Amino acid sequence: MATAAPLRILGDWGTSNLRLWLVADDTVIDRRDGAGLAAMEPGESPASVFVDRVAQWTDAYGPLPALLCGMVGANIGWRQTPYAECPAGAADLAARLTRVEARSGPVAIVPGVACRSPIGGPDVMRGEETQLVGAAAMAGTDDNGEQLFCLPGTHSKWAAMAGGAIHRFQTVMTGELFAVLSRHSILLDRTPAEATVAGFDAGVARVRAAGAGALPALLFEVRSRRLREGMMMDEATGFLSGLLIGAELAGIAAGRADGAIGAVTIIGSPSLAQHYARALPHFGGEGKMIDGDAAVRAGLSLIAAQAMMEMSV
Amino acid sequence: MATAAPLRILGDWGTSNLRLWLVADDTVIDRRDGAGLAAMEPGESPASVFVDRVAQWTDAYGPLPALLCGMVGANIGWRQTPYAECPAGAADLAARLTRVEARSGPVAIVPGVACRSPIGGPDVMRGEETQLVGAAAMAGTDDNGEQLFCLPGTHSKWAAMAGGAIHRFQTVMTGELFAVLSRHSILLDRTPAEATVAGFDAGVARVRAAGAGALPALLFEVRSRRLREGMMMDEATGFLSGLLIGAELAGIAAGRADGAIGAVTIIGSPSLAQHYARALPHFGGEGKMIDGDAAVRAGLSLIAAQAMMEMSV
Q1: A168 — contact with chain B (CB < 8 Å)?
Q2: Least CB-CB distance to B216: which of A122, A174, A225?
Q3: Is there a contact between B180 and A180 if contact means CB atoms under 8 Å apart?
Q4: Per-residue pLDDT averaged across B10-24, rounded?
Q5: Which of A105, A213, B262, B300 is in the most buried spot, having the most CB atoms within 10 Å?
């Protein structure tokens, strides 16, 4: 077996989810899914959880090198890693890996990425950088012109990429705003329903007409339309989602040279990405989608390949 | 005692607070403060709570007429009252009182007010209409030109008034956004601290420079400035408050003919009103303050005077 591709573990370990793949080159041999860092029990450490999750693999094959990205590199994770500054591609990330030794073998953790955002503030990401470099490789990026990528989510990331590297990015709080407003505010009486498409479309159209600067006022319409216009809870849930995603897109469009978003590659789960693709044309945008799971695996493979000399056991 | 002014009860009964005054004309004889509708125990009804709270007064003086405003007229209150449409002044509110009989005497509940907001959506208020007509009487409003009033709070209200009547208004979700984001989001780690003035000023300046349309992106800076610039929790708390109040003021300024807020009367507690007065000059505004308690009492007195024929026992 001396000529076989070396086995290694690739992983994305975030706040909510842990996804681990056992791979030989680009071939996935096995997979483990589990709960994220937020679900750790008292007395558990990321090291003990990891060693336990990969025990079947190390029992079979001996110590295995691992490459992990995500919040595992934050202060709530295994070891806090520094941020790489933009521009950052796979080689930059590979050159800034943080290494820890575990009973399962050597573990390398991908750094987060930091930049000065297009609106002039400090910005950070952790985990999305790996999806971005993977998606850029899948989509193909030019060395000359920048291409726009979007990762919708709790903290949506919009990244301008060229030559496979993240040049700058902007975080928008859309997903977390939806979560806290639907669960903890008066807007949906804390009982959000399945969102209707009609409600979503109405929310997008509303914020496009009134402008994203009116968002804190428009949010109250989720309530006033229920009180005054008989809007039902499922439509109101869609309306809130449409207001927030519409405001996100309006803000991004405002930062583009011609006020239109243009072509954008959306990375994520199909269900969420479809909402963005649906709203994009209202802001001069057109989306194509890349699966988030495939993107993170592609990114980890790229970074691992760049770091191969150190990674091999 | 036949020539003495008749006694009556005035009250503001909201979600969080109950304030009751025993008055003879405009003279306050006694006062009771208590918890609002959200604090009612199982088995209690607004009627039983009210009769209990005023028992000392009715024991001493016999049945007393009462006039109540606030969420006591909502579906969570004593009796759901219809909305009066704008324009609405004290006489309009007095003409649309909802009457219930209680063991303590006849009770009249002030209607809420509804309008089509300046940004074109349905809007509602319940309780603030009474503060507004009271504040307008205290400040003096012209029959010709409209004057701007602001009630900062969980759901801030901005009202254009003329001749003592509410002509139109706009709700902005500022206070509730601050509450849910500071308690339930990742921004302040769910442990908001006392806000610093420096942080508040920085937040106001930031949203003024970047534009209110960038708010969903700027919110994430509360986190990234802590991670990247060492912003402390008390400064970050002020920064979040400044971003949200600044976005509210920017949205109001954008709706004014010349893009400047101009003169505005701020009704509320001095601590909150001072934050608004501090931020207003950045948006072409200048605030003078009226105490919220005094305004609601003045409004109730005005409405009671208009309804006196029916109110007298």
Answers
A1: no
A2: A174
A3: yes
A4: 95
A5: B300
Asked whether the CA dihedral B57, B59, B65, B71 is positive or negative, the reply is positive
What's the token pair of residue B193? 């601290």
* CB proximity A8 to B under 8 Å: no
Q: Which residue in A has a C-alpha nearest to residue B254's C-alpha?
A: A213
Look up residue B161 and give its amino acid. M
Helix residue ranges per DSSP H, chain A: 46-53, 55-61, 90-95, 128-139, 174-184, 197-210, 215-229, 233-254, 270-279, 292-306, 308-311
Distance (Å, whole) CA B145 – CA B163: 9
Flag whether pLDDT at B205 surpasses 80. Answer: yes
Bridge pairing between strands B156-162 and B165-172: antiparallel
What's the mean pLDDT when you consider all of chain A? 93
Which residues of B fall within a CB distance of 8 Å from A228? 83, 114, 122, 124
Q: Find the length of chain B.
A: 313
Of B78, B69, B16, which is closest to residue B44 (Cα–Cα)? B78
A49-89 residue pLDDT tens: 999 999 999 999 999 999 999 999 998 899 999 999 999 99
Cα angle value B58/B60/B64 (rounded, 5°): 30
Distance (Å, rounded) from C-alpha A275 to C-alpha B204? 32
State the DSSP code for A127.
S
| Sheet strands side by side (includes B83-85) | B83-85, B112-116, B122-125
How confident is the model at residue B191, as a pLDDT? 72
DSSP state letters, B264-292: EEEEE-HHHHHHHHHHGGGGTEEEEEEEH
- Taking only residues 115 to 134 of chain B, the set having a beta carbon closer than 8 angstroms to any beta carbon of chain A reads 117, 119-124
**What is the rounded distance in angstroms from the CA atom of residue B129 to the CA atom of residue B295?**
10
A95-108 residue pLDDT tens: 999 999 999 999 99
Q: How far apart are CA A93 and CA B252, in angstroms?
A: 45
Write the DSSP string, B57-115.
HHHHH-S--EEEESGGGSTTSSS--PEEESSB-HHHHHHT-EEEEETTEEEEE--EEEE
Give the burial string for B64-102 (b: 16+ CB within 10 Å, else e). Answer: bbbbbbbbbbbeebbbebebbebbbbbbbbbebbbebeb
Query: Do the Cβ atoms of B218 and A121 come within 8 Å?
Result: yes
Alpha carbon of A155: minimum distance to chain B alpha carbons (Å): 8
Do B221 and A122 count as a contact with CB atoms less than 8 A apart?
yes
pTM reported for the whole predicted model: 0.93
Q: Do residues A164 and A89 touch, judged by C-beta distance below 8 A?
A: yes
pLDDT at B1 exceeding the cut of 60: no
Determine the residue type at A112: G
Which residue in the block uniquely carries the two structure tokens 């991670």? B227
Q: A19 - beta bridge partners?
A: A12, A33
Cβ(B248)–Cβ(B203) below 8 Å? no
Please check whether residue B156 is in contact with residue A247, taking contact to mean a CB–CB distance below 8 angstroms.
Answer: no
Q: Find the residue in B nearest to A190 (Cα).
A: B180
Beta-sheet pairing, A27-35 with A66-69: unpaired
Answer positive or negative: Cα dihedral of B61, B64, B68, B71. positive
